[in-house]
Design brief:
mainly alpha
Length: 267
């Protein structure tokens, strides 16, 4: 299985570098913009009072939300969302393609001819997904640490959560996409579904914040599970959301393994 992991990691390496540069670069860009806007935030409360509460809630600036005059609040509003959306897209694409492409590219017959079981194939691919996402988030962590040191305000708990809470979100998208790819083997179709999942969940997250009538939707939105308000103000991921997240990931991956073992694969 080690050889499978190494081979698969090399196949995805260029994609990993590209997406890591995009995500880390976006985070760096947003962090560099903070000094240019810092002085303008002295009258931010008066400015924000012109907007409806629902609008502010969407961006985490509602009552008890983020303070954009602080470095952590600024990144939570302006940078963290992009990290989650772009990183989530990479995770969904990786999770949706890493298994299905073997059938779509007609390489599954060659793979199955090797002395390796389907269980090893599934768990080897899962290990590659985890490794890729950890590397991506570690690069973002380095960017954040550099910025925190430059601005002279290092809170290790917030730094860790800003760096690795997105990993939980990404694993949710990757695991669900992985499960879908067991049944849908055409790469283009899987990628469309995976990206639709990332965008669709974000729309659900917005709807849950717009009105109390749909507040219950926050329990199915992965973006809410790792939201910046909890990271900055509470310095934690809420235990209930963490349990739901781990449950979704575990169930999706176990179902993927179960159905892939029983799948009638034709080359």
């Amino acid at each position: 299985m080690n050889k499978l992991i190494m081979t698969e990691f090399k196949r995805n390496f260029k994609s990993l570098i590209l997406w890591s540069v995009i995500v880390a670069g976006t985070a760096a860009l947003m962090l560099m913009l903070f000094p240019a806007f810092e002085d303008a935030f002295s009258n931010i409360e008066e400015f924000l009072s012109m907007y409806p509460p629902e609008f502010l809630e969407i961006f985490g600036m509602g009552e008890g939300g983020l303070d954009m005059s602080t470095f952590y609040g600024w990144f939570g509003v302006e940078g963290y969302l992009f990290v989650n959306l772009i990183g989530g897209s990479f995770a969904a694409i990786l999770g949706g393609s890493i298994l299905s492409k073997e059938e779509d590219d007609k390489t599954i017959e060659f793979l199955l001819s090797k002395p390796i079981s389907r269980t090893q194939i599934v768990f080897g691919k899962i290990m590659v997904i985890i490794l890729n996402l950890l590397i991506l988030n570690s690069l973002v962590a380095l960017v954040l640490m550099a910025a925190f040191v430059i601005y002279g305000d290092v809170n290790m708990t917030i730094w860790f959560l800003y760096s690795y809470a997105p990993f939980v979100l990404q694993m949710i998208f990757a695991s669900i996409s992985f499960l879908i790819s067991v049944f849908v083997t055409k790469s283009r179709r899987v990628l469309s579904i995976a990206l639709g999942l990332v965008i669709g969940m974000y729309v659900i997250d917005l709807i849950s914040k717009l009105t109390d009538e749909f507040e219950y939707l926050k329990y199915i939105s992965p973006y809410e599970f790792v939201n910046a308000v909890s990271i900055v103000n509470d310095q934690m991921i809420k235990p209930l959301y963490l349990v739901i997240s781990l449950g979704i990931i575990a169930i999706s991956l176990l179902l993927s393994w179960y159905f892939y073992k029983k799948k009638d694969i034709t080359a």
